[in-house]
Amino acid sequence: MAEKLMKYAEATQQYDVVFGLETHVELSTDTKLFCPAHIEFGGEPNTQLTPVSLGLPGSLPVINEKAVDYAIKLGLALHCKINEWSQFARKNYFYPDMPRDYQISQYDKPTNGEGYLDVELEDGTIFRVPIERAHIEDDAGKNTHVGGADGRIEGADHSLVDYNRAGVPLIEIVTKPIEGAGDRAPEIAGAYMRAIRDIVRALGISEARMEHGNMRADVNVSLRKSPEDPFGTRSETKNVNSFRGIEKTIQYEIRRQAARLNAGKEILQETRHWDEASQTTAGGRLKSDADDYRYFPDPDLVMLHITDEHIERMKAQMPEMPRERRNRLKAEWGFNDIEMRDVINADALDLIEQTVAAGSSAAGAKKWWLGELSREANEQGKALEELGVTPDDVAEVEKLISSGALNDKLAKQTMACVIAGEGKPEEVVKAHGFKVMSDDGALEQTVQEAMDANPDIVAKLQSGNMKPMGAIIGAVMRATKGQADAKAVTKIVMQKIKG
Amino acid sequence: MSDANSLVQLSAARMGEMLRAKEISSRELVDAHLDVIESAEPSVQAFLKISADVAREQADAFDALSDEDKAALPELAGVPIAIKDMIVTKGIETTAASRILEGWVPPYDATVIERLKAAHMPLLGKTNLDEFAQGSSTEHSAFHNTNNPWDLDRVPGGSGGGSAAAVAAFEAPLALGTDTGGSIRQPGALTGTVGVKPTYGGVSRYGAIAMASSLDQIGPVSRTVLDSALLQEVIGGNDRRDSTSIPEPVRPVAAAAREGLKGDLKGLKVGLIKELQGEGFQPGVQARFDESVALLKEMGAEVVEVSLPHLEYALGAYYIIMPSEVSSNLARYDGMRYGLRVMPPEDVPQTAANMMAYTREAGFGEEVKRRIILGTYALSAGYYDAWYGSAQKVRTLIIEDFKRAFEQVDVLVSPTSPTTAFRFGEKTEDPMSMYLNDIATIPANLAGVPAMSIPAGLSDDGLPVGFQFIAPQQRDEVMYKPAAALETALEQRWQGPIWQDMKTPWLDGLNK
Amino acid sequence: MPTFTREEIMHLGNLARIALTEREIDSISGELNVIADSINKVQQVAGEDVPPTANPVPLEAYLRPDTPETPLTQEQALAGAPVKENGMFVAPRILGEE
Known about the structure:
The complex is a heterotrimer of chains A (499), B (512) and C (98). Chain A has three domains: 8-314, no CATH class; 335-432, no CATH class; 441-498, Arc Repressor Mutant, subunit A. By secondary structure, chain A is α+β, with helices and mostly antiparallel strands. In chain A, strand 12 and strand 13 form a beta hairpin. Helices cover 39% and strands 18% of the residues of chain A. In chain A, 44% of the residues are buried. Chain A has an eight-stranded mixed sheet. A three-stranded antiparallel sheet of chain A has the order 4-3-14, with no helix packed on it. Chain B is α/β, with parallel strands linked by helices and 512 residues long. Chain B has an eleven-stranded mixed sheet, with helices on both faces. In chain B, helix 9 (225-235) runs antiparallel to helix 10 (253-260) and helix 10 runs parallel beside helix 18 (477-494). Chain C has a domain at 1-45: Orthogonal Bundle (Histone, subunit A), CATH 1.10.20. Chain C has helices at 6-15, 22-39, 42-45, 74-78, and strands at 84-85, 88-92. In chain C, strands 1-2 form a two-stranded antiparallel sheet. The relative contact order of chain C is 0.08. Chains B and C meet through helix 12, helix 13, helix 14, helix 15 and helix 16 of B and helix 1, helix 2, helix 3 and strand 2 of C.
């Protein structure tokens, strides 16, 4: 039963949008938040457990120092107030994938308090997203639903539980209600999420791969008539795991809620789910007494004390933040706004930086990663770094071009062979005998043959009309299978005409 | 000396001496106790599980050690011990006396068990308790009652009735207990044994099945003060697997106990807790208590009365904090990973949530369910501040009361339990009267201070009375000295240990 | 002052995932009302100026190094499982109950 929707432009004209994001970022520590079980993506089910992460009677949690370090770094990056004393609390609810049937999280005393993140929008506008808190908590296991269609929970007969993920450290970054976004709410949400991803990657605290589920967000949306009104009732769409999904969830919720409000219906306080297939959110469960999580300080853990010294130690390890780095690289590379945006959108910043570091020009690196390689990645449905081409490879090909050893055409052929897994550029060039034919006798002979075969064109050239030069070059190229250097061909032709 | 009857009546410290002197072997000690267990269990029923093979194997391993290796071990090396079934033992079924955990064989050892094993102390078996240590009589065990060796028609106290009864009946020279509101000390009082709750954080809780995490503490059960001290030194000290473990070595309690045996208490200031005497305490209990106080004075202690004004709120705070933590700690027993699973009846949807609800309904006993419901309420939205929040504040007030008291005196004293051992069924009908049993023991748990109970003689009914010492946090040795002194003075007066008056028919047939 | 009605006990049973019987609901509501009276006393002294104590011994958290230790084997992890399949624990049908 599809819900009625209002046109987006109309909805954002009639209503003031307020939204919020709760982003879960899985930390890339070696061991779990509260026990020394190693963490590995994949792996046999139920093999990454200690008595603690399996919730065995008598087991007790002990905090992982690395997780705290990571939390402090994220707090610094988000300009959060880092609380000297924070506390872990139990969030009590029953679910088969929760080994203790309570989650250890932070409640009224989170490690990171208020902060903000400035995000840059497509047009260069800076929007400040206010952060409420960024707290530490542990993840649950994974259920696989058996007996239903497509492994979905609905209609499943039973579920298989793998607790390997249980206890993996997470940081939940909670924004304050974000006001004043208007019709740009989806764009801001997307930019914010990408900025968070870039920051946690720059900090080296998370893989932040949404497709692996190590970054996901709950999206809250509410509408009100005017910014002066109190907040409207919000919907909460859980566990959205793609940037596009987050943008579309907000868009959809704005349109859905506006239609309801206009029809005089109330907004239900409920949790919803984003359905990628239908591009809609589906109603879930109403907020109820079952949400009474009975938080209380975990008596198995004592207060977490973060000293100034600890914070200073983390500060000293902070890398350059993504936005500052982008601005610096843009200046160093001499790119304009649009070029830089294309680089970011193509997810090629790191690759280009590494390619330049390996000796390529910035323009040359950009040309490859945003051109040929992006096209290829797109066709193969892969990320750029999964193509099998390294920044060193690209820099090597660029060097061969600038030294004149390869022309554009041969360079592309070389790259295609590298993508196909034939080896490093030099190996490919050697194996295929790719070589630019320059001004030796063989080339002169070939040029003469091309001129002899096209007397009318030669006549035009002799009369001073240089336009058909391309036809001669083309003929030479065909004859040499692309190994000729176009400049050298032109030079020989000119000499012959004059002679 | 291999006469089992007399062997098992020795103190653990003496057994240790004889082992070192090679007058006996650990295997002989284990076998003697297994003999007593066999003969006593039909009437006492202190054990849920007897691990005879494990104990014999451990004893043989100790006996096979070189003299040099033995010399490096603690004094209690080779002396067997019984373990409350609230403590996790690798490869030995651990149930917390609950149907919901029946059959669970843990894949790991509690830290205290690791330390006992490192000290080569053989494990005789797992002792009975109130289900998940919730109760004061051991009547709430899902499996069977334990009978008080002094009078088999009476309870041994609880929750650690099994450990106390086993030690009182000479089935074990030592045992471990867990004490959340008096579960080591009150059974000690009711069975004429010594029971110690160390400072909170003094002994690792890793592997102690959690009842109320901020109150639980593992401690020794023995027949003499020195034995408890020696045992506390084996199991105590920092453990990195317990975040609430104090990062310091164990206190010098054995030296303090030995010092106390000299009987000189000059310079010691003893505080009688005004709120824990008189009304509500059985006259025979009060009389034995008063006599013991007089003995402390005779040995040179200065005795004054001190008031801890917030103790009247202790029971209320305890009955909020304890069930709150219980409700959360016992959530994990849901039929998914270990223990019992009960599917719902056919007319109820066969879902995971219903499976959990029917498993927990069938697997938990009434007292446990009552506490889970109470705790769920105390933590629920809208009541948290009034209940849990208030109780945490009362806890602060009680801690401050103790601090002030310890500015005036070195050690505090009170009767351990208001009454001697009661009859089966006498208090189960009325939870409030059962809860009142713990009135004198609860404050130490709320404040995290160490406390111990030692026998102070027999009441008019011929049953043992317990005398409680309470010391400041992480100063456990302060109570061991006067406790050992009082024990010596009382035994001089009685011309023998308290248990010389206990009838032990199960020992009679032993050496035939 | 709180009083425990049957409905309230049923609701608490639900939150605590215990399928209480009718008899238990009755007996627990009666008993809890008695206990509640004595418990309510704590509010008398819990003034705003009194800080709460969560843990009796004042410690700050020890932070464990991020170094892996030997985990349980899959066999050990599953040894107590009431029902298992393919190295995993089996849960009956999970509704979208969350």
